[in-house]
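Quick illustration, no need to memorize.
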Amino acid sequence: MAVALVMGEAYRDDDPRRRIAFFTNAAGKFEAEGLAPGEWTLEVATEGEPTNFLLVVPEDAGGASTHRDINTSWAMVT
């Protein structure tokens, strides 16, 4: 199930104050610029508490932007 039409922020655990804003489209796809390779937490604005997902940007991702789908099959983190 896609996580559609939501706003969120991406951050790394080693630098949680540096946040990159993003939003998803109707299909749950998002684009975020500036996501370096490594593990990122995607904090999505949901009703009540935010929902967090883990995103791993591979070393060979290439380019300055990341295009991905966010869906509920991802590993949710707390």
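The beta strands are 7-12, 15-23, 29-33, 38-44, 51-57, 65-69, 76-77.
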